[in-house]
Specification:
mainly beta; three-stranded antiparallel sheet; elongated; binds zinc ion
Length: 69
């Protein structure tokens, strides 16, 4: 198993890095905007994170891209 390094996104409001917990190995790609309906397989995992600085919620969408296999 390869180790998964910690993932972060930049808070869109203040620029602080927010840590993103990896949901699983299938949903390998994440985005802070919702992906287009036909650009992923099956379902999306939606995470609502909270910026530690400005306390605003940051939404992250995990999905499995179509060209994954
Ligand atoms: Zn923030």
């Amino acid at each position: 198993m390869s180790s998964i390094s910690k993932l972060v996104v930049k808070c869109p409001f203040c620029g602080t890095l927010v840590e993103v917990p990896t949901p699983d190995r299938v949903h390998s790609v994440f985005s802070t905007t919702k992906p287009a309906v036909n650009s992923y397989r099956k379902n999306i995992i939606e995470q609502r994170l909270k910026c530690s600085k400005c306390k605003k919620s940051v939404d992250v969408y995990w999905y499995e891209p179509l060209n994954n296999r």
